[in-house]
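Chapter review: from sequence to fold.
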Amino acid sequence: MCNQYDIGLLIPAPNGLPFSVPTTAVTEHELFNAQGFHALIGRDVISRCVLIYNGQLNLFTLAY
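The token string follows.
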């Protein structure tokens, strides 16, 4: 059993419209705070974007 919450997600854009997910259900989990993880974004959100991950440079780009 775990807690579930309904949240809204807004990723601001410096020169345009922000990326917005009005309401989505999330569940509470223990994360690796010592490693800097505060939340995980799932494929239900990423499927609305273009995600490019460059493992060699340890960089990612999220476009919407």
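Two observations follow directly from the output. The CA atoms of residues 4 and 27 lie 4 Å apart. Residues 43-46 form the longest helix (4 residues).
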